[in-house]
What does this fold into?
Amino acid sequence: MSSKAAQQDSFKEGLLRLKDDLLRFEERMKTLLIASLRDVKSFMKWQPPTPRIRFQWQMAMVIQLWFVLNLKKTKRSYT
It folds into this structure.
């Protein structure tokens, strides 16, 4: 019975370590999300010289924002 208790204890320790790792991962993802949103905000102030470049730049920003938001959704589904 003591080996079974030892197995349960090690399993519980493993679960606690996994929980801590997931919490650290969530904090890192929040930090990355905030940083990328700051980048988008600072880029929004910059105006490209021509309409064609402005359109391409806006599409790049939309794609980046879409990627960041989808990354946040997938992170939520794993936790």
In short: Residues 2-78 form one domain. The two ends are 33 Å apart (CA to CA). The chain is about 90% helix and 0% strand.
